[in-house]
Amino acid sequence: MDNLLETISSSIENVVISFVHVLITLFPFLPQSLLENPAIIMIIIGFGGQALFGARFIVQWIVSEKVQQSIIPMAFWYCSIFGGLTLLTSALWRKDIVIICGQCLGLFIYLRNLHLIYKTRKT
Asked: In terms of Cα–Cα distance, which of 75, 73, 80 is closest to 106?
């Protein structure tokens, strides 16, 4: 299990470094030190995932207020999935098994809910 996590973490770090190369090429004012410390980018990605994940509640609140009843809109599930995937990526890079397990379970539930919604709409 440790070797698998190490391999996944290294792969994520390599993708992040490649991404930083692209960013520095597109935006030359960015510091070259980002290449030496991919943890900075991963922290930003982690916060971005957490913001997206948290935004799902704001989306749900706004939609519920608009119709004056508690509902869960499709955007809630998409924010959950994309936020969860981003947090899972961060957890895999950090090799944090607790967050990995939690996000995997959550992602299964969010995807299952979307499947049920689309299945119901087809009938």
From this structure: 80
Please choose, from the candidates 88, 60, 54, the residue with its C-alpha nearest in 3D space to the C-alpha of residue 76: 60
Q: Determine if residue 121 is left, alpha or beta; phi over 0 gives left, psi from -120 to 50 gives alpha, anything else beta.
A: alpha
The residue whose two tokens read 């936020």 is 83
pLDDT recorded at residue 1: 72
Spatial CA neighbour of 108 closest among 84, 90, 92, 89:
84
- How do the domains of the chain map onto residue ranges? 2-122
- The Cα 63–Cα 65 span in angstroms is 5
Q: What does pTM read for this prediction? A: 0.85
